[in-house]
Design brief:
about 300 residues; 6-stranded mixed β-sheet; globular
Length: about 300
């Protein structure tokens, strides 16, 4: 179950694993809304829309080609942005992984709490041709509380084995592909940030086990001078949208962070909550699964996947 702060209702999903097959069901309330099936043996992805009674298919090779094209597009976008605006980004990054010693039983399994904190301070100086350089500062704090089950469990082994098979076939787990794309670009453009994220990933990997509950909090803290400049209207719409080669990570998101912070300063609050999320495993069991669970309903229509 996944819950986002401010969302109307939680997102409920169920994952099934059987050898070289995985099925992921997502529900709208109690009604089955969509299904994603991965078949490693057949090298096939299937996405089912139960409301429309339609489904799409993509082979592993088609997925690889799509992935490669996306990487090329990212590089082209980066080159275009760099040609339009000269941008200098400086990072001050702190990563902390702390095992608190707190313990809790979740779904009958003993878990240990780990708190991971990522504190990112960013200073961006952008200069368009014929204009004076402008500087903006922002601070993003991500705090993630994870309750890890590290015991010997057959369900855990089944999930890990499937992931290893996927990585062997594709070179990457598909559910982490979009993040991997961004990380690749970050590593090339901003080595300091890339190194910090690499460290965070390595520290997280050391934890092992299954995260039975993950509660994440994303907060921003605006630099007073930057916030004041925006408040006084000294920066026009274009200049506040500082372009960067990470898809607007600092520009678009940074502007939203600063605008939210201006509102909070009127309420005398130091930090602004951007996002809260909670992911919780509500059941983790092993039982025999029939092959029919991984089949497409005969009455459903095959349609072409939507592309850009």
């Amino acid at each position: 179950m996944m819950k986002f702060f401010g969302a109307g209702k939680p997102i409920n999903s169920v994952d099934y694993y059987k050898g070289d097959q995985k099925r992921s069901d997502t529900f709208d309330g109690e009604k089955l809304a969509s299904t994603a099936i991965i078949d490693i043996d057949r090298e096939l992805f299937v996405n089912i829309d139960h409301k429309r009674q339609e489904y799409t298919q993509m082979t592993f090779e088609e997925w690889r080609q799509m992935f490669e094209q996306t990487m090329k597009d990212l590089k082209q976008d980066q080159a275009q942005e760099e040609s339009e605006t000269k941008t200098d980004v400086k990072w001050d990054i702190k990563v902390d992984v702390k095992e608190t010693g707190a313990k809790e039983q979740i779904e009958g399994r003993p878990t240990d709490q780990v708190i991971i904190t990522l504190d990112v301070n960013t200073t961006v100086t952008a200069q368009e041709e014929g204009k004076a350089p402008e500087t903006a500062k922002a601070n993003l704090i991500v705090t993630s509380s994870q309750w890890m089950f590290k015991g010997d469990d057959s369900a855990q082994k089944e999930m890990m084995l499937f992931s290893l098979k996927m990585i062997k076939k594709l070179g990457i787990a598909p559910d982490k592909a979009s993040m991997q794309q961004m990380m690749h670009q970050v590593f090339e453009s901003y080595p300091q940030l890339g190194a910090a994220m690499e460290k965070l990933q390595k520290e997280s990997d050391k934890l092992g086990g299954v995260a039975m509950r993950v509660e994440s909090l994303y907060e921003s803290k605006a630099d007073p001078q930057t916030a004041q400049a925006m408040k006084e209207g000294k920066k026009d719409k274009e200049s506040t949208e500082i372009p960067t080669s990470v898809g607007g990570l600092v520009g678009g998101l940074g502007k939203k962070m600063l605008n939210k912070q201006l509102e909070k300063k009127q309420e005398h609050k130091d930090r602004t909550t951007l996002l809260k999320s909670k992911l919780e495993v509500t059941d983790l069991t092993t039982s025999s699964l029939g092959s029919g669970l991984f089949e497409i309903p005969a009455s459903y229509k095959l349609v072409k996947p939507q592309t850009k």
